[in-house]
TrEMBL record:
<dbReference type="Pfam" id="PF03466">
    <property type="entry name" value="LysR_substrate"/>
</dbReference>
<dbReference type="InterPro" id="IPR036388">
    <property type="entry name" value="WH-like_DNA-bd_sf"/>
</dbReference>
<dbReference type="InterPro" id="IPR036390">
    <property type="entry name" value="WH_DNA-bd_sf"/>
</dbReference>
<keyword id="KW-0804">Transcription</keyword>
<dbReference type="InterPro" id="IPR000847">
    <property type="entry name" value="LysR_HTH_N"/>
</dbReference>
<dbReference type="GO" id="GO:0003700">
    <property type="term" value="F:DNA-binding transcription factor activity"/>
</dbReference>
<keyword id="KW-0238">DNA-binding</keyword>
<keyword id="KW-0805">Transcription regulation</keyword>
<dbReference type="Pfam" id="PF00126">
    <property type="entry name" value="HTH_1"/>
</dbReference>
<dbReference type="InterPro" id="IPR005119">
    <property type="entry name" value="LysR_subst-bd"/>
</dbReference>
<protein>
    <submittedName>
        <fullName>LysR family transcriptional regulator</fullName>
    </submittedName>
</protein>
<dbReference type="GO" id="GO:0043565">
    <property type="term" value="F:sequence-specific DNA binding"/>
</dbReference>
<dbReference type="GO" id="GO:0006351">
    <property type="term" value="P:DNA-templated transcription"/>
</dbReference>
<comment type="similarity">
    <text>Belongs to the LysR transcriptional regulatory family.</text>
</comment>
<feature type="domain" description="HTH lysR-type">
    <location>
        <begin position="8"/>
        <end position="60"/>
    </location>
</feature>
<dbReference type="InterPro" id="IPR058163">
    <property type="entry name" value="LysR-type_TF_proteobact-type"/>
</dbReference>
Length: 298
């Protein structure tokens, strides 16, 4: 990689991370080198691109304009190299933003096939069970469940599952009778990320039932909600795919199966402001194919 091209990629990483040291760790470059390269880049373009303070590194107005142009150029360059090779082989680094549960249950088990197809590509899973800032975290492709907030990011729906309410057999054996949604009010509910709102709405044959649920445990991590349900701490709401293994093993049982509790959608997200890199598009396509049989059966 040429010195100037390296400087451009390093500038993008610094701008997105807001830190010289974080960018250096990402690109395996010492922090002093990062500072020197960025200073040389600013001298070359004749403008201050970044404002340095003891707390953060932020873009100047000139830096914001430069970043938008540089990211598009780098994306076009990656696209051109990918097309010229003509083999479909991907190279470089793909930063994927994903929840820990989805990474463990879905991505990791099938990731080997994708990496085998592209031996020159490195995938970095940036796991966060809250809503990530794709720009700040330098994410090339993200996966998000549920309703998307208004955003300029490009989203592609790649999966959909039933939302279910589940509980452990041991819990259900001693819990109050549960035959209609209103009965949930007498149960302990684990409020997880899949459906943390207190009002749960069910539908059946045109009938709509809304019930407010309560519980002693709330979590932002699906794996914790699932484990808590298996441990008999109460009922939990999640996608059918999110607890498929536990349902199959009999560790969890679906309750109110005749009631429609809605759907959980999965989207592939490409950050706004720049073209998606070839690896991001390819991995989104790959995951869509992997998930097709699963969500079509749910």
């Amino acid at each position: 990689m040429s010195d100037h091209l390296f400087a451009l990629r390093l500038f993008v990483r610094v701008a997105r991370k807001g830190s010289f040291s974080a960018a250096g760790r990402d690109m395996n470059v010492p922090q002093p080198t990062v500072s020197r390269v960025i200073s040389q880049l600013e001298e070359r373009v004749g403008a201050l691109l970044l404002t340095r303070t003891t707390r953060a590194v932020t873009l100047t107005e000139a830096g914001q304009d430069y970043l938008a142009r540089v990211e598009q150029i780098l994306a076009d360059l990656d696209e051109a190299e990918h097309a010229v090779r003509g083999t479909g082989e991907l190279r470089g680094v793909l930063h994927v933003g994903v929840s820990s549960s989805f990474a463990q249950r879905v991505i990791v088990p099938c990731l080997g096939d994708f990496l085998a197809q592209h031996p020159s590509l490195r995938v970095e899973l940036i796991m966060d069970d809250t809503r990530q800032n794709f720009i700040a975290d330098g994410v090339d492709l993200g996966f998000r469940f549920g309703v998307l907030s208004d955003s300029a990011a490009v989203a592609r729906k790649i999966g959909q599952w039933k939302r279910v309410v589940v509980g452990a057999p041991a819990y259900l054996a001693t819990a109050p009778r549960l035959s209609v949604p209103a009965d949930l009010a007498r149960h302990s509910v684990i409020l997880g990320p899949s459906h943390s709102g207190q009002a749960w709405v069910f539908r059946r044959n045109g009938e709509v039932a809304s019930v407010r649920v309560t519980g002693q445990l709330a979590t932002t991590v699906n794996e914790v909600a699932t484990a808590a349900a298996v441990a008999g701490l109460g009922l939990a709401s999640m996608s059918a795919a999110g607890c498929a293994a536990e349902l199959q093993a009999g560790q969890l049982v679906q309750v109110l199966p005749d009631w429609d509790f809605g759907q959980v959608e999965l989207h592939a997200i490409f950050p706004a402001g720049r073209a998606a890199i070839p690896a991001a598009r390819a991995f989104a396509d790959f995951m869509a194919r992997q998930l097709a049989s699963l969500y079509s059966a749910q």
